[in-house]
Design a protein that fits this description.
The chain contains 24 helices and 24 strands. By secondary structure, the chain is of the alpha/beta class. Helix 9 packs antiparallel against helix 21, helix 17 packs across helix 19 and helix 20 packs parallel to helix 22.
Length: 698
Amino acid sequence: MSKKPATQSHRSPKRPEKGAPKNTRPSLPASAFLPTTRAEADARGWGQLDFVYVSGDAYVDHPSFGSAIITRVLESHGYKVGFIAQPDWNDPESVAVFGEPRLGFLVSAGNMDSMVNHYTVNKKRRRDDAYTPGGKGGARPNHAAVVYSNLIRRTFKETPIILGGIEASLRRLAHYDYWSDSLKRSILLDSGADLISYGMGERSIVEIADALAAGLSVSDLTFIDGTVFRTRSLEHVVDYEMLPRWEEVSGDKRTFAESFAAQYRASDPVTGARLVEAYPHGVYVVQNPPAAPLTQNEMDAVYRLPYARTWHPSYDEAGGVPALAEVKFSLTSCRGCFGECAFCALTFHQGRIVTGRSHESLLDEARAMTQDADFKGYIHDVGGPTANFRGPACAKQRTRGACTDRRCLGTKPCPAMKADHRDYTGLLRKLRKLPGVKKVFVRSGIRFDYVMADPDPDRTFLRELVEHHVSGQLRVAPEHVSDTVLAAMGKPPRAVYDAFCDAFEEINRETGKKQFVVPYLMSSHPGSTLAEAIELAEYVRDMGFNPEQVQDFYPTPSTISTCMYYTGLDPLTMEPIYVPKTSHEKALQRALIQYRNPANYDLVREALVKAGRTDLIGWDEQCLIRPKRPKKRDADGGAPKGKGRGAKERGSFGKGKNAKGRVSSERSRGAVGAASKPQRAGKPPKANGRKGGIRKGR
């Protein structure tokens, strides 16, 4: 079932940004939402409902929430749908609010995998949950889709159960589970559900509903694209590819990598094969090919549905649902992503074929947004998985599918890829001209390599981005600087990021603006040894600031990087790859990136000694730490400072001079320009008064 993609594939759940709308009491009554109680259903004159949607998230009727899209799509097709949010998984009555639905239960863990929602990369329990009223944690169980489905099955023995959402979608076949450090079977088997609707599920859920309404048994629904079913006979399953058996993938990591590669190749709706995975006792799990992506007209229709665009009023007393603040005044302009970052699950969930909504659809939604009492004139984002993608990477993708043997971007753009920002630029121009709109931000992330691949000699898009759509900081995701690690990530070489920063800086100078590129960085990704981690630390040193946005690689289900982490093999090449696995080694790599933090001194020293890089321990300006732990807990955490005149320039927040005293050519790539002077102890550098940036130095 559909959802706007989260960054769950490797990052922690996002907190609302500074300046995001505060939670305020919605003005709409409960009747503007789908029923959540028997009384609300009775008020509509509904007896037995057709479907009951059970969600691990609170009920927010906004199109950035998959539950809202699926339930409104079904409603638009004439089906009666009730909503049960965050039921008590210890109480069977909590899923029996509406009694037995006529056609079935729809079950989703929510907008995030419940394990990512609950645990940090260090497997520590999170205390809060942005998708729960008041932001309180503990409102859903671990592996929520499995738990809810089993609870329903114990209560309603024969009623069809259809799983959807990100958790079910990415666990639809045998998969590695980071939290138990083991391989798990298809979620279909552990949940006791009848079907999985995987990916963006508007097509498949309507086909399922229509088939059940026509009198077909759920066991007969073996023909719907975008679904997974189980069977004891393959007699009527045709044109399939047999994956290795469960006993084989669970007993041999290389076999699992080969199976994962086959699944990855089958993720395209045009070329994707039907896959069969055999389990003990004569059980087969069958994955039908992915459903075709919606056309532009179909997407427009989905976003025209009568969403309340806020949380259910029953959450007012708790202060609402924090996750809404991040998206309430944002526009989803596209779906799909041909960027194919190895650590991202979008290829498995939304696919590589990008579809953009029409300008008219987005402008209509923006106009409605301006009428909201909480709207202050700022559209917080216009984007999707990647903001500056608006259509397929090349002309053939719609008819012949995405290539199975090459990436559109990756380490080098495919010659067939069409890099063109004219449509997106035109859209942004129209949005910022709307009455009531003061500024339109682009915050969901741009692919800087796609920007650099655009042949436009005037760099029109980048110029407009700088002039109109950035406020102080532009966050992009180079993730690393080692070309070895970047290749494993499916990212462009470091030189591309450097060239982007040069272009961004040049346009800022020309326009008289002081704005900064702030990078997301990742530690401990497969392919990163201590040598690559030190390379990144040296780069951070030359940036001249303390990076706040650093994330340890998080192995979430059904990504290439997670397969690497589990098997030690790149599933696309079957070549061995180094994997930092122990918590201590991961701590060493993370500490290197944040070497200025005094608390990291011992870890940084250990890493440098272990890697044979004691040349970075000393008083020289290129060193990362002093020979001895500093007594004073200053801001640079032990990075050397000079004495007397000139000490400011040699400090870790100085101008990045090399050993010969010349200004280093390695300028800041995390905040354009090196810092002009050292910061006071305990104070991180700032940009435009915002914590975490860097001052422009010239």
